[in-house]
Amino acid sequence: MIEVDRLMLEKYNINLFQMMENAGRSLAILGKELYLPDDLKNPKITILSGTGGNGGGGLVAGRRLANWGYKVIILLSKHYNDYKGIVSHQLDILKNMNVDIVEFSKYIEEFKSDLIIDALLGYNINGNPKLNTKKMIEWAMKRKKNDNTQIISLDLPSGIGPNGEVYDPAIKADSTLTLALPKVSMFKDESKPYFGELYLADISVPPMLYKSEKINLDVDFLFRKNDIIKICE
How many domains does the chain have? Predict the structure, then answer.
């Protein structure tokens, strides 16, 4: 995935903002289709947002869902001012829309949600989650256990590494929307149970990029029929 990101930026001039928008839109659509039926009264969605690209994708999903009339609350793993660059830009949009934005350390534990969107950590995870990130994962799993709250993760469940690493704590998602390519950890015995149903999203990767020397895949026109594809259950 690192090589995909590099080529997208350096060779095809598709920037992180564009990728973030595509990822967040797909995440919002999938979350709505899977977990927010039309007969659900006044559904509430909680976005767990880290400071990196995954967090930005979650913020885009939150904006989309808010635009569709859902009650959305954004939980931040750090202080508002610690969010930088395009992630900060996404956060500012939500602030201007009067979407609720709360630092997790100030959060009310008892708040219940119909859907949790996990956008805390991405494939660069290296070691056990700490501080607020750790507490947010534990909070999400408590809500899942006590309230049967559904969880959808972006790219990887937070606490799971791309090559099968299972850190402590980790999100055990009901479904995961991964980006561009399936990750090795989706098929490893130890980490596979954390993903739930697997979906693959089109973030506008040119098909010829996959044929580059370091990736060497022939995916043809994978997303011609749908820009979200179910991989397996």
Answer: 1
**CATH code at 188?**
3.40.50.10260
Domain membership of residue 178 as a residue range:
2-36+44-232
Q: Write out the chain's pLDDT in tens, 233 residues.
A: 678 878 888 888 989 899 999 999 999 999 999 999 999 999 999 999 999 999 999 999 999 999 999 999 999 999 999 999 999 999 999 999 999 999 987 766 667 799 999 999 988 898 999 999 999 999 999 999 999 999 999 999 999 999 999 999 999 999 999 998 888 999 999 999 999 999 999 988 888 887 886 787 877 777 888 999 999 76
Answering whether pTM is above 0.90, one says yes
**Core vs surface per residue 98-123: b (16+ CB within 10 A) or e:** ebebeebeebeeeeebbbbbbbbbbb
What does the chain come to in residues?
A: 233
